[in-house]
Amino acid sequence: MKFEKLNPFNSLFGRVFLWFWFALLVILLSAFFITKQLSNVVEVSAAEAGQIDSGRLVVEKLARLLDRGGRFSQSLRRAGDRRGNTQIVAIDRADKDVRFNFPTPLAGNIAELKGFIDAEYPVLIKLNNMQFVGPYPITHNDKNYQIFVGRLLKREERSGMSRSRAAIAGLSLAIVLSTLFCFALVLSMTKPISALRKASKRLADGELSSRIAGLESRHDEIGQLADDFNSMASQLQSVVENQKQLMANVSHELRTPLTRLQLATALLEDQEVDEKSRSIEQENKAKQLHRIQTDIDKMDKLIGQVLTIAKLNATERTIHLATHSLTHLLSGVFNDGKFEAEANGKELVVNQIPTLSGQFDANLIVSAIENIIRNGLRFAEKTVHCEIQVVSEKNTTSSLRITISDDGQGMKAEQINQVFDPFFRGENQVSENNKGAGLGLSIAKAAVEAHHGTISAKESPFGGLSVIIQIPIVE
User: Which residues form the HAMP domain (predicted)?
Assistant: First the structure.
């Protein structure tokens, strides 16, 4: 992982930086190569008799100088005319060593003459700035040489492309290559940005399934931006779908008591009609009214819970913090929980409450713990265990951790992460004992998060479900 961070291809800056220098290197090498190739023109043709004879005279002069004991390099210089108009090149047939009698800057591409040392008869060889006739064989100190005799060409005599024109060609190639490199670089940056723009527009138009595909392999800022966009779109889609599901569930939960209200009202109307003809016992009427009141209370409670979740999940939520002792804050909740457990033939086991104080919204904390305990008692076989701890992690403030576990049937592992969704009920939770609307744990989650805490669920060591809340203690 550490080496991945050092990889320059994992950042847009590194990519552009390396791309620039790579493109510059390729352009320079290409321009240099094409300039050299275009300027190193070699033309071969048959030599005229006069040219061959002139070259032979120079070679014979060189041979006489060598026979007199002259040094090879000195004899090369003396074999030419005094004005320096005759250029002589000698190539050793054995080791291909090249010697010449003129300044090195004029040498140019004379190495091309090595390709003609095996010619059977002299030919005319025109280089970019010189013209030679050869080869002429000569032997000195048991070494065989091939001699080429030439002269500098006038500007109008030079064939092929001049250096200036070759430089222009190289510059043109550099411009073309730089254009291609810039186009590729810009395309690699604008194409994913264009895809992001189109996906954003589709998302804004209501297509919540819009995602950016094909950028998974990119590890630079653009790839990270695409991942963040896909994550944002997924969360947005999840929120919208949850809101739709919430509305559907609220409608379903309200429809049942409303149906009973309509039925009870119809029965009362029938009873009022019958009362005109005969007397009906007031007891039946009281039962119907009690049922109506019960359903009204249920709907009122449901609406209140939905409003509570909406307020806690609002962007600008306000909580009323005050300093509370944990013992004073939690003892009442646990006492009520023990009473409710005994009434249902169950038991709530609570360890000792730590003696310290912190900043809490008492109503929210009490509501959260109360809902979790009530949920545990609803599905427990016999016992609900509550463990209260104050934990301190390195370089962090202390936190209040409360773990509430039941010994019920539990739920499937893949459903545990859904227990905090509004109106969610697991397969093992659909029973006559579960008469709640499925909002208790959702309210608890919102209350805990309002305190910048965390809430999670896992399999209980006692067989059911464990809900763990952890809230930072601000003194």
Answer: 187-241
Tell me: do 255 and 396 sit in the same domain. Answer: no
Asked whether residue 151 falls in the same domain as residue 175, the answer is no
151 and 107 share one domain: yes
Residue 457 lies in a domain: yes
Which CATH number belongs to the domain containing residue 312 in this structure?
1.10.287
Whether 202 is covered by a domain: the verdict is no
Assigned token pair, 83: 């004005």
Rounded Cα–Cα distance for residues 439 and 434 (Å): 12
User: Which of 278-287, 296-305, 381-390 has the weakest average pLDDT?
Assistant: 278-287
User: Are 296 and 175 in the same domain?
Assistant: no
Q: Dihedral, CA atoms, 286, 290, 296, 302, nearest 10 degrees?
A: -170
Quote the tokens at residue 276.
């005109």
DSSP track, 439-456: -HHHHHHHHHHHTT-EEE
Same-domain status, 96 and 141: yes
Cis peptide before 135 (omega within 30 of 0): yes
Q: Which residues pair with 433 in a beta bridge?
A: none
d(CA 230, CA 238): 12
Quote the domain boundaries for residue 415. 322-472
Pairing of strands 383-392, 347-350: parallel
Sheet containing strand 454-459, strands side by side: 347-350, 383-392, 398-406, 465-472, 454-459
The total number of structural domains in the chain stands at: 4
- Return the higher-pLDDT residue of 349 and 28: 349
What's the whole-model pTM score?
A: 0.47
Of the candidates 416, 417, 386, 380, the residue with the CA atom closest to the CA atom of residue 401: 386
Average pLDDT over residues 309-319: 63
pLDDT tens-digit readout, 396-432: 678 899 999 999 888 888 788 788 877 776 665 544 4
Q: What is the DSSP letter of 326?
A: H
- 8 A C-beta contact, residue 122 and residue 52: yes
Q: Is residue 201 part of a domain?
A: no
Contacts of 9 (CB under 8 A, 6+ apart): 15, 18, 219, 220
Using an 8 Å Cβ cutoff, are 420 and 411 in contact? Answer: no
